[in-house]
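Box 3.1. Reading complex inputs
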Amino acid sequence: MDIIYLLIPLSLVLIGLIVWMFVWAIRSGQFDDLEGPAHRILMDDDDIVKPPPDETP
Amino acid sequence: MEPAVSLNRPVPAAPGHPGAVPAPDCCYHCGLPVPAGLDLQVTIQGMARPMCCAGCQAVAQAIVAAGHSDFYRHRTQASATGAELVPDFIQQTRIYDHPQVRKSFVRDTGAHEHEAALILEGIVCAACVWLNERHIRQLPGVLDVQVNYATHRARVRWDDTRIQLSEILQAIQRIGYTAHPYDPAQQQQARERERSVLLRRIGIAGVLGMQVMMLALALYVGEWKGMEDNFTLLFRWTGLLLTTPVLLYSGLPFLRGAWRDLRNRSVGMDVPVALGILVAYGGSVHTTLTGRGEVYYDSVVMFIFFLLVSRYFEMVARKRGAESAESLAQGLPAMATRLTDSTSDSGQEIVPAIELHPGDRVLVKPGATVPVDGTIESGHSGVSEALLSGESTPLQKSPGNALIGGSINMDSPLVMRVERTGQDTVLAEITRLLENAQLQKPALTRLADRIAAGFVTAVLLLAGLTGLYWWQHDPQHWLPVLISVLVVTCPCALSLATPTAISAATGTLLGRGVLATGGARLETLARATHVVFDKTGTLTEGVPRVVDVQTDSPLGRAALLEIAAALESHSEHAAAQAIISHAGPARRVAHDLRNHPGAGVSGSVNGTEWFLGNAGFVQANCSGARPQDDTQADTQIFLADARRVHARFSLRDEIRADAATTVRQLQEAGLDVILMSGDHRAAARAVADRLGITTVFADMKPADKLAEVQRLQRAGNVVIMAGDGINDAPVLGAADISVAMQAAANITQAGADMILLGDQLQVIAGALQLARRSMRIIRQNLAWAIGYNLVALPAAALGFVAPWMAAIGMSTSSLLVVINALRLTRSSAWTSSTS
């Protein structure tokens, strides 16, 4: 059972990592729009036609 | 601002889901029926598609030309009717390029880089977001664009050596949407911050909490099966290490709230919560240090986590409501054309209306809104004060007459001298009256808070007494009993009972196109006994349509319609617009157009002089047969040349398709339906008879309506009022529940309890049923919460409940309440309430 002395600190390190990742995800806007990406994945972006620059004002 | 208005026209949902293809005889872009004889087409995805107007055609062409025709495959709703890019709009957007104006909207992010936040109007489904993002991104000079689907907001970054903000706004307008910059530094940003902080608190409480629970489980099992002391010690210290950040960071809002309450010498919900977690935490720390007693770290984190989650859901519901209301209230800043020369009309400049000062001379073009209050210096024109009085017939105004800001100039240019601006205007005065009326509404929420405060005080007293008793009789157990009492009686279930049900119902309503601006309104709605409808724009569509063309002329209907449309082509009057849209695209041109205010128009088409107007006007100009004006309910317009009358157009403001069903459903629900109209008796009666309404008040001025509603209220009735005009604003403010239509004036919407976001009247009946269901669920929830407390409190005080049992009991009880409330979000909650 002495392994517990290693496992518990290890789990603490993991938790620290998870918390840091979570805070990073919020800060970088991963949670800003929870609905849009679900729809966006369905739209293809591969047929973009770039109009010649002189046509667009 | 005209294009924005036309884009706000109701959007009919296209039938069928995939691709939302409108019916073959409907406009492929917006789904409205294509007028007979009109042949406008755009080739989309290899097929010629019909279009209902030049605006839709232009928008569809712009979308296809930019390579976005996939939009039509992905969208799930028909788009808003397109509007052509008019020079006025281009002029208005230019104002944003002016450094002085844009400094409040635009942020500099680099030497030539700028960033602005935009509100997008006209977004109905995810494909719209996709279309806007792609379209804006491929404009040369645009560096980045992000559209948020949930909030309909966009963030654009661009290089101003290559593109201007006005060009971006015009490009968005060209594909059928309206964008206006807004100042994100206001509430929006504050709300975003609040949300991300709360999420972080929940996340940390959740992640750390899971570990604490795991350790707690080991400790409980160890208690039962036996465990070595050094492991127990390790687990307790780890628990302390993990719980401390949860208490200090995630639990901060409760600690802060409790501190604020205590400083104000009041007791809110936060006080027992904070006390509970502090006592449990303090006791556990004591145990950890001394090794005697038990630890309750699991109870602390579980408690904080569940409370935060319920707060988050409440906040999401609130935020959505606030955002919808915000985008309704905001628009382009009103622009005005100021004459720079104080005597002649030579120099003109476009300035924001807020920069006008008394004494300035302003040119008001036909069709434009009068920006501020003033008097006419030169020009004669019909001016519609519908926004203020509800009377849609324009008033004839000449030099010396007063102009009120917010009214619309219908016929010809006017030059006015500004007299009052800003807070001094009539419009601002009405807004203030409205705000006062709202303040006087009974604040039911305050009552609920007071009851809760009483409950909390009682719980605290009881907990104190219990703790004291156990301290004296069984000092070993006083702490766990005290914690159990505090946790088990946590007024969670009690405090969640109402808000969760209301949030769930509000969310369901929003999904069905009803924005409820305050949660407490549902309670009032459920008790309603009377419902009062305004006629024009509420039970009817609010805009006249040509319902009949009678002619015995050899020229034929189509040709006569074209002539009429050509004659009306320069008029902004509602009747003129009805004829123009009925006739389809302009095929003839009229010359020598003359406006005869209040009567009609004359002009020559193909060399013949034509007269178009009311019976009196045509009679005066035409020697031939007398036009007959036989039907009362319709507006009649006659087309004549100098010799004979050629055609009679009947215009009618049609009753909404679902008005009859709505009235019937409300009557079946036991409500008295009343019609109050400013219109004359015959017109009001005709509408009421067709809808089965027996109580009709006609010829009502706003003050009469107000008095009548107040009379009903004094008799103990709860009155719902549905209306749209500014003239309805005072009576809406006085009604117990006010419902504003989608097309209602901003000021009316701003004061309303509920705003219909779609064009369906029937949702009012649905909302009423849903409100009643919500009240049932709230009563069930309250009964459960009180019953639970009645059982759990004595048990805890007698020491039968260990703290962990209390925490589980509390959570289960709260969960039950939440799940019960969530029944309101199921679609069956709505369908069963509308069927």
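In summary: The interface with chain A takes residues 65-67, 70, 74, 125-127, 129-130, 134, 138-140, 147-151, 167, 170-171, 192, 196, 199-200, 203-204, 207-208, 211, 228, 231, 234, 238, 241-242 of chain B (CB under 8 Å).
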